[in-house]
Amino acid sequence: MGFFSFIQEIAMDLGTANTIIISDDKIVVDEPSVVALDRRTDKMIAVGDKAKMMYEKTNDNIRVVRPLRDGVIADFTACEQMMRGLIKMVHTGSRLFSPSLRMVIGVPSGSTEVELRAVRDSAEHAGGRDVYLIFEPMAAAIGIGIDVEAPEGNMIVDIGGGSTEIAVISLGGIVSNNSIRTAGDDLTDEIREYMSKQHNVKVSERMAERIKIHVGSALTDLGEEAPEDYVVHGPNKVTALPMEVPVCYQEIAHCLDRTIAKIENAVLSALEKTPPELYADIVKNGIYLTGGGSLLRGLDKRLTDKIKIPFHVADDPLHSVAKGTGIAIKNVDRFSFLMR
Ligand SMILES: Nc1ncnc2c1ncn2[C@@H]1O[C@H](COP(=O)(O)OP(=O)(O)OP(=O)(O)O)[C@@H](O)[C@H]1O
Predict the structure, then answer these.
(1) Nearest alpha-carbon partner for 289 in 198, 160, 113, 186
(2) pLDDT of amino acid 92
(3) How far is ligand 1, taken at its centre, from the CA of residue 232, in Å?
(4) CA–CA dist 136, 19 (Å, integer)
(5) Residue 40: which residues within 8 A CB-CB, separation 6 or more?
(6) Whose CA is nearest to atom 24 of ligand 1?
(7) Rounded distance, CA 321 to CA 20, Å?
(8) Where, per UniProt, does this protein localize (predicted)?
(9) Which of 55, 109, 173, 198 has the highest CB neighbour number within 10 Å of its CB?
(10) pLDDT(317) > 80
């Protein structure tokens, strides 16, 4: 067998909560950003869903890590191991040589030079040869199908796990951006705290996220879209006896109110900084909501009512950034000015 090498192109949305990889226009990996490592050797034991199942259930020999916090890499070793593990999932079938990888990775637009360097280094150590970085709001806009090169202002609000990014895009560039480290994970934390304070029940991070998905709401009146109460099981935080607590969406809406207000205020302050011509375009086009956090019930309506500009939730908000990075990698030459 002779030597041969081929270039494989992969696009990655490296998120705080989920990492998605697109190759040949298809989503080939869609896994939680979690890795399980041997505590002594740092060897990878599991990655993605398998590692998430171990989360909050490990013994002393295993460390289960979410390597990203607040949208940026918090644990470098773990991040590299995770990227390596997830990239391996792309290489199905038996190949003698691992391909040379060209990668486009979505990164938060508020990243510092040091943070960008860290993502690039991790990607190179995980096997990337040509590594391009694209800012997530730009990738999200491309993924949603917005003509990012048009002389027209569009606002994207991407509510992920660790950060909310608000960006105004026009003529192929980010005109202004506002990134806050308040997003979906903070909503989960609020629920966890609330359950403990209000109901004396101890819940795990995963259970709190389930509550958010089942009965999370940005409004105290959802009308016909109201979900049924959700029954939470967990230990009493004082007596440790098992409890069963039914939770309704109205109380969760109250508990999430303050954190949602922070996101609202960030959108308002981004609008304040937007030049008038672009502002007019945004009022006409509406504001695009994306990221998993935009799936919270009633959020689009709450923002529309408060800000008086229509908010549209993207079709597949968990995948907009990944889709955009997938399009960018197919058009590296055309979009080179969007990448670094
Ligand atoms: N149905 C839902 N309702 C409310 N929140 C949801 C829902 N589904 C997912 N989420 C939340 O969306 C967040 C993850 O979104 P996403 O995958 O876009 O983030 P990410 O890209 O990994 O994070 P970041 O952009 O901050 O790095 C999590 O906080 C998750 O709990």
Answers:
(1) 160
(2) 59
(3) 21
(4) 13
(5) 61
(6) 160
(7) 9
(8) Cytoplasm
(9) 109
(10) yes
Q: What is the Å distance from ligand 1's center to 120 Cα?
A: 23
Q: How far apart are CA 176 and CA 77, in angstroms?
A: 33
Is any atom of ligand 1 closer than 6 Å to the C-beta of 110? no
- Do domains 147-182+256-314 and 189-253 share one topology? The answer is no
304: amino acid identity, one letter: T
Ligand 1 pocket test, candidate residues 12, 13, 16, most atoms within 8 A of CB: 16
| Residue 161 beta carbon below 6 angstroms from any ligand 1 atom | yes
Q: Does domain 147-182+256-314 have CATH number 3.30.420.40?
A: yes
Residues in the annotated binding site for ATP: 16-18, 161-163, 209-212, 292-295
User: For the residues 2-16, what does the mean pLDDT come to?
Assistant: 80
All structural domains of the chain with their residue ranges: 7-139+321-338, 147-182+256-314, 189-253
Q: What single DSSP character describes residue 95?
A: -
* DSSP-assigned states of every residue in 138-167: HHHHHHHT--TTSSS-EEEEEE-SS-EEEE
Mean pLDDT, the chain, rounded, equals 92
Q: Tell me: ipTM over 0.90.
A: yes
> Which residues face 82 on adjacent strands?
none
Residue 97: band (very low, low, confident or very high) from pLDDT cuts 50, 70, 90: low
Chain Cα centroid distance, residue 340: 21
Residue type for 180, please?
A: I
**How big, in percent rounded to 5, are the helix, strand and coil portions of the chain?**
40, 30, 30
Can you identify the CATH homologous superfamily of domain 7-139+321-338? Answer: ATPase, nucleotide binding domain (3.30.420.40)
Residue 125 pLDDT more than 80?
A: yes
Distance 291 CA to ligand 1 centre (A): 6
Q: How far apart are CA 211 and CA 193, in angstroms?
A: 12
- Confirm or reject: Cβ of 293 under 6 Å from ligand 1: yes
Is 16 near ligand 1, meaning CB less than 6 Å away? yes
At position 134, the amino acid (one-letter code) is: I
Residue range 220-243: mean pLDDT, rounded: 96
Q: What is the pTM of this model?
A: 0.92
